[in-house]
Structures are given as C-alpha cells and as structure tokens.
Amino acid sequence: MLSVHLWSAISQRHWDSICNTVVHHCVVRAPFEYLVRPLHAHREPQGGEQAQSRTGTGMQMGFTCSHLSHQTPLRASSDSTAHVYQCTSAAATHIYSALFWAPPGVLQVNLITRSETHLQLEWSKVSNNNNYNYTLRFSNGTESSITGPDGGTTVIHTVSSLSPGTKYSFTLFTVFEGVRSTGFDFQYVTAPPDVTQVNLITRSETHLQLEWSKVSNNNNYKYTLRFSNGTENSITGPDGGTTVTHTVSSLSPGTKYSFTLFTVFEGVRSTGFDFQYVTAPPDVTQVNLITRPETHLQLEWSKVSNNNNYKYTLRFSNGTENSITGPDGGTTVTHTVSSLSPGTKYSFTLFTVFEGVRSTGFDFQYVTAPPDVTQVNLITRSETHLQLEWSKVSNNNNYKYTLRFSNGTENSITGPDGGTTVTHTVSSLSPGTKYSFTLFTVFEGVRSTGFDFQYVTAPPDVTQVNLITRPETHLQLEWSKVSNNNNYKYTLRFSNGTENSITGPDGGTTVTHTVSSLSPGTKYSFTLFTVFEGVRSTGFDFQYVTAPPDVTQVNLITRSETHLQLEWSKVSNNNNYKYTLRFSNGTENSITGPDGGTTVTHTVSSLSPGTKYSFTLFTVFEGVRSTGFDFQYVTAPPDVTQVNLITRPETHLQLEWSKVSNNNNYKYTLRFSNGTENSITGPDGGTTVTHTVSSLSPGTKYSFTLFTVFEGVRSTGFDFQYVTAPPDVTQVNLITRSETHLQLEWSKVSNNNNYKYTLRFSNGTESSITGPDGGTTVTHTVSSLSPGTKYSFTLFTVFEGVRSTGFDFQYVTAPPDVTQVNLITRPETHLQLEWSKVSNNNNYKYTLRFSNGTENSITGPDGGTTVTHTVSSLSPGTKYSFTLFTVFEGVRSTGFDFQYVTAPPDVTQVNLITRSETHLQLEWSKVSNNNNYKYTLRFSNGTENSITGPDGGTTVTHTVSSLSPGTKYSFTLFTVFEGVRSTGFDFQYVTAPPDVTQVNLITRPETHLQLEWSKVSNNNNYKYTLRFSNGTENSITGPDGGTTVTHTVSSLSPGTKYSFTLFTVFEGVRSTGFDFQYVTAPPDVTQVNLITRSETHLQLEWSKVSNNNNYKYTLRFSNGTESSITGPDGGTTVTHTVSSLSPGTKYSFTLFTVFEGVRSTGFDFQYVTAPPDVLQVNLITRSETHLQLEWSKVSNNNNSKYTLRFSNGTESSITGPDGGTTVTHTVSSLSPGTKYSFTLFTVFEGVRSTGFDFQYVTGLFLHVHLIPKKYKTMYVHAS
C-alpha cells in the first residue's frame, strides 16, 4: 500500500465536498494553521443502503455518494471506523474510504457486587452524556444493549445467569447514533461456590485434620480458612484427586474453634461455609483408687486443666462405657465403679470429653477385693488356746489368708492343697479372755474387706462360796470375783439341774447372789460355774441350809406411858419353836411360849412415855434364827402443862405452849367446847408451838382442851379458857387545832358505855380516857404540843383490861409565821423575794397570797436556810400587798403581811440621730411619757452620765462626744424613779469609719475593671461598699492578710466611663465616701473584610464598633508600625487602604478600637496581597486529546501554586515541582482539532493573581492510502 497526504491527492474543493457529505469532522493540515470545520450530524449507513447525497455549502462542485462497505482502517485511532463510499460528480467518479470519528469509550468499569451467578457493573457516563447508549459484548459474541438512566452520572448493569467461579471477558462499547466506540475491554470473575461440607479426619489436642470435596472438582480453585479471631490460612488443593486435606495446628486442647472456609477463584471469595470443630481435650495424668470393696472401685482424679466444662467417659475392657460429670466445685472428680466381680483385675480407659470429643484416653488397671470367708467355726477351746476352722473362699486354692488380732498382730495362713476347709490353732492365749480377730482373704496382695469374729478362752473356777444371809426362803451367797475380772459372769446349778445366771457388780472384788423361793429349813447342794462370753469353767460344788419361818403378826393388847403388852400366834403352831425379842438398841429377850394354846403373850415394861419402839421377833430352831418379824408400837405421850395467850385481836386468839418433852415428833389437837377440833403441827425448830384460833367473835370467852398426839396416840388432855379483844374506833376527827393543841372527837365503839379508851402517843406516853355516860361521842383535847409538828397516835378500846388492836391516826399543829420577807431584785414586771426558812424546817412549804386573793404555792429548796421566790407578770412601778403563809402538811400559819414596789420600765428604743467619726447623737422617747423619770447612760467601761429630760416634749436627746472613728460602742440606758433603776436598755452604735484616700486601676478589659486600694487604717474588720452612679452597690470584704483590697467590677459595658463612690463600712456604718471614675476598654471589631487587593495594596473595611462615631482605631503591623484611623462621621463602616505592600505576601495585623485613649484588646487578622501573573505559557507538545504546557515559576517562588481555568469554567489545581524554575502541565481528555481558551492564575495562600489568558488547539492529521486496483481508493484517517 502507498500512503500519501490527501492534500496532494485531491483538490481542496473535492475534500470540502466529502467533508460536508460524509464525515463528522475534517481536520486539514495547512502549512501554518489548523482549520477546524464542524459538519452536520451523520448516521452510519447500514449494509448497502445509500448515503444521503449532500452538497457542500458554497462549493462549486457537488458529489452523490453511496455506501459500499466498511472496514477497519490501516491506521485508525482507538475511536474511529472506516467506511467505503462511491462518490460521483460531473467531473469524475471516485471511490473513497472515509473515516468517521466514533464517540469516546468508557475509562473504567467497576464491579459493585458479585455472586455465583451475577455481576453488578457500574461505570461513569461517557462525557456525562445522556444521549449515549452502551453495548456489552461477551467473549462469545453475545451482546446486551444498555440504556443509562436519565439522571445521575453513572450507569449500573447486572449481568445474570452466569456460571459460578468463572472469569468473564467483556467489551463495553459507547454507542451514539449507531456509532460505537472502539470498546473498553475488561474481565470479572463470578464468586465461586462454597464447599458443602467440611469433614474432620483426625484430631488431637493441638490440631484438627480437615477434609472437603473440591468445589465443582475444579483444580483452579483455592481456599481460605478464616478463624473466628480473623486469622486466615491460604490453602491450595492437590492437582489430582477430588478432595482437599488441611491440618490446622498449634491449637489449644479441649477448645471449640469456629471457622469459615472460603472458596477462592482469581482472588474472589465465595460466601463462606461456617463450621466448628473441637480439639481433643487432654488426658488425665493419674487415676487414684480411693476404696475397693468386693463389688466396686472408688476412683478419683484431678480435673483436667481444672476445667468444669470437661466431662469424662470410663471405658471397660469389654467396651462398656460410663459417662461421668465432675462436680461444679473442687478440683477432683470421684467416681464409683459398681456391680463388679470380687477378686477380679479390671482394665479401664478414662477419656476426657469436651463437646462430645474424647481425649486419647488414659489406661489403668485395678483389682477388686476378694470375697471374705462367711463363717469361722470354733473346734475346741481351753483356757490358753482356740482351734479355728473355715471353708475355703470360693473353694479356691490360690487364695491365702491373714488372721489379724485386735492388737494388729497378724498370722499368715496357707490352706491345704486338698479339701475344702482350712484349720488353724491360735495358742498361748489368756484364760477367760475374748479375742477379736479379722480374717482376710488375700489375692495378688489385695485383701478382702475382712471377716470379723470373736472367740473366748475358757475362764477359771471360783475357789470358795460363802453364806452371807439365809432367811426362810433364800440363801445369800458371796464369792471372790474370778481373777478379779468384771467381764466374768456366773451360773449357779441346783442339784435338780435348775440353773441361775449371775452377773457380778461393776465395782468391788466380790459377787453376792441370793437364792430365793426355797423351802424353810432345807439343805441345798449347788455347783457354781464361771462364765465368760457364754463359756463355762469346770464348776465349784458346795451346800447350805435355809432358816425357819417368822411370826406373821404381833398384836398390842394394852399400852400406857411406860409399858406395852404384846401377843402373837405360835409359828406353825409348833411348840418346839422358841422366840427372841430384839429391841432396836440390840437388847434381846428370850421367850418360851406356853406348852398349851396357840398364842404367846409378853409384856414390855419400864418404857419412856410417848416413844415409838421398834422390835424384831425371831423364830429360833436348832440355833438358827428366822429372818425376824419387825414391828413398832408407841407409848402414850404426856400432856402440855400450860397454854399462853400471845395476841388476841377481835376475831382470833394466838396461843403458845412449850413443846411436850421438847419433842418435835409430837403433834397436837385443840378441841373446842362444842367438840370442834383443830390438828396442829409444831415447827421443826424452837421449843414452843404457836397456833392462832381465828373466825372468833369479839369479846367472847372460849374453853379449849389441848391433846398431845404421837403416832396417832393422844395424851389425857389439858383444859384452858381465853377471851377475844374488843373492836377499835373507826375514825378520830380533828375539831380544832392551834400551834400547841389538837381537839379530837370519835364515836363510842359499839355505842357501849362500858368501854374505856387509851390514847397512846408515838413516844409511848398514854392517856386513859373515859367517855361520858350519855351521848354517842367522846371528845378529848391534846395540849402542850409543838407548833408545825405532825403527831402520830394510837387509840385503844379497853374492855375488862383487854385492849383492841388500836386505831392509828395523825394530826398536825399549825406552823409558825415567817418574821421577815426581803426584796432581792425588782425588774419592771416581777419582784424577787427572799425569807428565812421557818424554824429552818425543810418540810415547811409556803403560800403567797396577793391582795386580790390570788395565791402562789412555794416549795423551798432542800438545802440552805432561805427561800427565794419571784413574783412575775406584775405591772411596772406598782406597790403590791402580800400575805405569806407557812404551810405544813396542808396546814397554814396565821400569815405574815408585807408590801413592795416594782421597778420603772426601760426605754424601748434609742435612735441614732447623727453620727460622725467622733460623736453619736442619741434620742429616745420619754418612758411612759413621764417627766419625773430621769435617766442614766452607762458606757461599757462603767462610766455613767446622768441625764434629765426636758420638761416639755415626748423625747430626750443626748450627744455622746470625744469618740474614736470606726468604733462600736456598747451602752446601757437606765430609767430612774425614786432611786430605783430599770433593768437597763442595752444598745450599740458605731462611729463612722474613715474614707479610702485613693483607688487604683489594675486591669480593664471590655466588661470589667479591676480596682485596688489600701485597707483603711489597715483594719481587717472594715468592709467596703462600691456604689455605681446609678445607685447599684457591691459589698466587698477585704482579705484577712495583706494591706490592700482588690475588687473586680464585672458585667460592664465596653468603652464606657463609670463613676463610683467607695464607702468604708464598719458594723453596717458607712464612711462619707470616696468618689472616682474609670473607663472600660472599648470592644474589638468582630471582622475586618478585604474589599480589594492588588499586588501592592489591601483595601480593608469593618463595621464601626457599636456604631459609635466617638471610637477611633489604630492598625498595628506585625513589625510594630501603627496607623491611626478616624472613621467617617456618617455611615456604619470604616474603610482603610494599606498600600506600598509586596506582591504575594501574607500580612498580619492587629486592629485596636480606641476610646478616650484606651485601646481594646485588639482584633488579629491576616490578609495576602495578590501574587504576580505568569508572563508566558508555552506549548511543548500536542495530540488529538492533550496539550502539554510549560511556564516559568512566578518570582521563582516554590510556595506559589497555580489554577488553570478552561473557558467552560472547569479548573485544574497545579502544584509546581520543588526544584527547577519551570512548571509543566499536561491538559488531557481533550477533543481532537479543538481550540481551547485558558486562564492561568498564580495562587498564594488561596489568593489568585489577575490571570494570564492564552489559547491552544488540539491536532487532527489526515492521510490517504492508495490501493493500485481498477479504481482509486482513499482511506481518510484522522490522527
């Protein structure tokens, strides 16, 4: 092929026609310029359809063109399509290949989401043009047409129905008017499928071996295993086979792990398959045997890792398993394996179990205990040996035996090879001893539980049996304990074979036993065996005889105080029996009964009266006495010799007599004359008996008989008589009393004139009183008494010399009067009185009677000799009359009369009329408006001034002078009347303190003033009040230390002159006041705006502060230079131009508001002057879509940046390189053959220069390719 420039192949007008009728744009290269000519929109012909004939405007020649075919140009750009046309004109026919400029392609296709079967794609709209459509071509040629949304800047498209885990290749074309872009090629992969199952192949304490089927059996897939903590392992499956195996190692034992397994294809993961597996827990390290009976083993082991979540499985050698859960607390697990066979070796494996996963298993063995023997029989025994026998356990010749004594000694025993029993003799034993044994069956060194049994050696015989007592029907035997052993028992065998079992006492060395139910007078033969644990000795033989019978009754025939006559029936009516009567003192009388008859009579004489005698009567036969019949009889007791009367009230008589024979065992019976009797028991101690006869009638004579009684036997009886006392009076009334006598009166008792009376004083003095013959009352005056004394009396009624019980009563004589009442204090409303206690008697009380009859009861103090009483609620300056009575036991004295006057009133208020630093002018109202009152003013130091009020008027004025400044004075003002002062009115006033002499200003922001002054007189007690000119006041307390006071006045208005008065304050009193003025700082401006800026000046503007024309301003530069600025009289803003500045420089300023020479804090701000423009922008290279520009750095300043603005307003920010003196920038994504206008700004601190304007054009190059065939063909190619 031959390529030449179109310019040399065709004429200019031919090209113009083609450009107008066929292509979108033609860019024709001229020697020194570019001509850009836009054409009408053109749709690409499809197939062999005719292209619309067009004639170029203004052209002399016209062409008619038809579409022949389209083909890829030999040198097409990425966005071009070549079409072949046949064009005919009047001059000639040519076939041309014309290149159409296609729409731009997308630059990037992003993947939004993906799944196994779809891909969601997104790209930016090309040129943000809603007229563009898109075609997505698959690698297999399938295409999808896509229309972007009307709004937005992106297009989203989902490709569905895809295969999982597959890489898809796509070409995305931009389509406009049927013309496609070259196409953007890209690839994306669908998510691969997840595995469906992950199997656990093996596990140990520290690893898990996993296996899964290859997803889709695809060797290209890889896998990622993610732990729950985010750690991941990458896994590549083997080239062959259908499964993937992976071991996860370095794990913790007995732990549940959570995993997610992702299938990975081309870096794309599947959703992920979640699964969990548990590592094997650790094994136990030791299993201990706690106990082992025949049928179970109690095992114990430490909890693995002390983890309560672990369980355990115990496997037997036969495969049987037990599940075991350890306790929640503690560090060990105990488990009992039961239902085992005795004497058997068992093999076990103990697994630790966590989440159903077992450990490797700990193997161990233990043997159960062999069975015990079931019985050990005793073959023979003696005092020193035991011959034992038992059946072989389980008839097993391999079993051996160990016989353990209770003291721990053991004998090893091997049974005979033959036979079914084992015999063993235990020798060298002690007689009569119980031996405890344990017989163990032994197998492989393991003993059975042990069979416990006991056997006893034969005990020794007794050596002698003694007879202790023998009544008629029993024999009391005694013998020494055999070997002095308390554990031995005994058996007594009669000659007829009857036996009695006998247990000796716990203590002592002998055993006593009574053989009863015997026949009297019979010889008995016995054998006594020693018995220990049921084992008898050989036996000891002996004989004894029983005693004869006793009498059954002894009767009393007669008794007196000195003898007893007895009688009894002959025993068994046997004349051969004799009798012995024994007294309790051991004396005995032998008695032989008469030959005839059936009774025996015997008189016991020379006895003591009232005495109980004890006797024993024995039947005697052949020198052997019966047990003896015991009986008692009593002799008659003596009478009392006298009964005395102790007391006799009206209704009872209290009697007393000496105990008969001083015998406490005697009782007594008192018989009334009417036959009634009272039984009386005397006291255990003493020598007398007292008895009260009650419910009697007053003044009556009673007759009695008193019997002595002993053991139910009475004496002859003692007769006597007594009379009851008369009644008491029931009331004694007081008729009159004085300080020295009491006149008494009472009713006659029972109105009986025969009764007399005796009045006894408390000191024992008595007066006999005979009532009058007539009348019903008796009157008696007791005289020569002491004043104010309580007297106690007893009045007896007397009849036939017998007094009544006595009526007790008390009466009081009138007490004496006080002799003087003194006045202690007298305020306005009360009088404090004092007097000596009457007779210095603390029991006296007092009553104070007012002249109006009102009375006050007064109790004196327990101690002291005086009584003080305050009469209150009185009227000031009033004379009061009183009567003071002495009171004793409710009885008043005659009364002491006296008078006293109350004090005058106090003033109620003292007002301060004027005060200065050295005087106080006082004023008060005249008390009660009484001109007769005078006044006394007392200072706190005791000094007093006497003051007489004016004759006229209602007030009194007095000036206290020569005082100290700022001092509190205390006064008491007394009202004085007739020499009597009032209580006194206390009051205080303060002299005025001095003023401060100067107030200094420490600081003054806009809203407060900090003031300072010296403490007045350096006095810490002074406070201060600061008054504003509007009357507002602040109270100020100075510090405890130091000599100055500092106070900040806040919440002020900025830029304002304030007038103050500062008062010194002491006790609420102010000084004259110190006046001063200060000004607050004016406010700052809140904003300084930049109106214009150039390279050398800044025009500033701000709002007038508070819109106040009186404010001026000072602008300070950062180097300290200042400019004074006065705002205009009108308007609300101030404008100021700062000139002679440097270009592209940041300036820092402080703007102060100034009022009366006081500046504000200052408003800080910064502005930058405009940087210079670039002087020239050069074009380095150009293409269809980009322009490479270059310019010199402005002022060779690396801090300057640049902004390139397109004519459509789009801007690009450009930062120059740190080094060098030029900046290079490429403008890309441009349209071919287009003239672009730009403005380049220099930028410093965000401030742009004026801007440098320039233009450049992108390139378009045309080439013609000639094919030497039957017709001339041109490929028009823009590049």
From TrEMBL:
Coiled coil: none annotated. This is Fibronectin type-III domain-containing protein. InterPro entries: FN3_dom, FN3_sf, Ig-like_fold, RTP_Phos/Ushers. It comes from the Eukaryota. Residues 103-194, 280-372, 458-550, 551-639, 725-817, 903-995, 1081-1173 form the Fibronectin type-III domain. CDD domains: FN3. SMART domains: FN3. The lineage of its organism: Eukaryota, Metazoa, Chordata, Craniata, Vertebrata. It holds the Pfam family fn3.
